[in-house]
Specification:
- By secondary structure, the protein is an all-alpha fold.
- The chain has a domain of 53 residues.
- It is built from four helices and no strands.
- Helix 2 crosses helix 3 and helix 3 packs across helix 4.
- Bound molecules: zinc ion.
- The site of zinc ion has 8 residues, from loops.
Amino acid sequence: MYCNYCGKAIQDDANLCPYCGRRIGAVAGRRKLMRSRVDRKIAGVCAGFAEYFDLDVTVVRVVWLIVALCPPGGGILAYIIGWIVMPEEPEYVPVAPPATNVQPYQGS
Ligand SMILES: [Zn+2]
């Protein structure tokens, strides 16, 4: 499949374009709860949830930390469970740039 923004060929199950970094998962329709590789602090669980629920990863981390700290234990346990249960998203393999030079869509 191709990125809607920069037009480069990307992985079919990619949520983010590795070239321009834009989210394309919502366009593709199919979303999986996966630990993020690109945006992780510990294991990418918070980023994975943010990706899945289309939330700001910082909000997820803050909420998760609050839950983790009071009462202590629950959030940390949930994080560890997420770490174990959630599959890691596939690694983005860099694709050789196509011969035709596609101009990136800059938006307005
Ligand atoms: Zn792109």
